[in-house]
Amino acid sequence: MIAKEFEYRRPATLGEATHLLADHPGSVRVLAGGTDLVAWLRDDAVAPDLVVDIKDIPELRDIRLDGQTLHVGSLVTFTDLIESDLVHDHAPLLVEMAETVASPGIRNRATMVGNICSAVPSCDAGPVLLAYNTTVHVTGPNGSRSIDINDWFTGLRETARTEDEVVTHLAIEVPKHGGVYVKLMRYAGEDLAQAAVGIVVYPNLDYRVAFGALAPTPIRSTAIEAELQGKELDDALINRVVEMVPDEISPITDMRATAEYRTHITGVMLRRGLVAAVERLEGKGPEYGTRLI
Amino acid sequence: MELEVKVNGEQWMLNVAPADVLLDVLREHVGTKSTKIGCERGDCGSCTILMDGRTVRSCLVLAVEAEGHEIVTVEGISYEGLSELQNLFLRINAFQCGFCAPGIVLSATELLEHNPNPTRHDVQEALAGNLCRCTGYEPIIEAVLAAGRPESGPGQGETP
Question: Which of A6, A99, A105 lies nearest to residue B48, judging by beta carbons?
């Protein structure tokens, strides 16, 4: 049961949606899949006067490839990603990530954009989208703007989106690359990440390394990336970057793991992830979807 | 708010508030008591329903979001007798207290619809979000695997 009453609107156009948002400053929430929002409403963690359901806005459902850029609309669910041939062919890393999200009953509703809008530290899409060159496109009453994913996560459950803006889609650069999403859970099946590592490597040995559940927001490690930049992987290089991990993350101790364990295991995951990402770039290595931890 | 929704093949016109959760509306207004109230935060799977053929957690859906959609609960797949899968659940004794069973039957129904011959791993993945505190899952997995095997034939519906 949700204790607080609110108004519900389901606009058919983006313009109508942004005006509804702008007219209710301080007390409005956008609803897509609802798997976070409805739980938060029930917990009284959020108590808006108005909920704007964007599911009737058809253009937000698109998945399409424009050159080497994959566009993923804000209503695209994790199941949609898993079932998309386009995503399988051009960004199998998104599929590998999506398959680790909760359970099918959640993935059928939850959207990837909603995942980064909720912006919890363990959000699975965070490290992967940070490892890609990703741009978040939003539209508000005064027009559209784009936000670099590196500027998106501004704090715990906070993003660069203003409350009168709707995310329309993500633009993800997908030239030839190898990638990996390594997620540690307490048990196989359904769980939030205790620690997560997202890596993308390009043919010119440009590496992107991002972490989830290891800081208040998903984070990139530009220091580790700089150490790897342009180099072939070898044991000495991997050891050097694994030693950098404790300075790059700020994990907490909670019911799911201690900070010490998270720090140690992240080094293990980075080691395995780097090897797998480079092998995948070369068309070898473990198939996408293979659990590495 | 007026809500027009199809539940188990019947068209319903309901009067709901925006804050009403679909799970509660199904149980209290429509009367489909197979849909169980468990964790109410999407973790346990006992409130699983099929919405347009896909499993969703009815505890995480506002009733007003169901407008124009088609909902199926375990009652809806049993009108013309138990499904093959349900008969196999009976034959293999795949539930004990039964609280998780409606959600598990629907999750397995969705799996078999998209993947008629699942592997053990496929079954485990499909049911990962449905908690059972009685069986240890093994008989459940056996029942779903048996439903996926072409040689299994229709279940006999015998209670052990």
Answer: A105
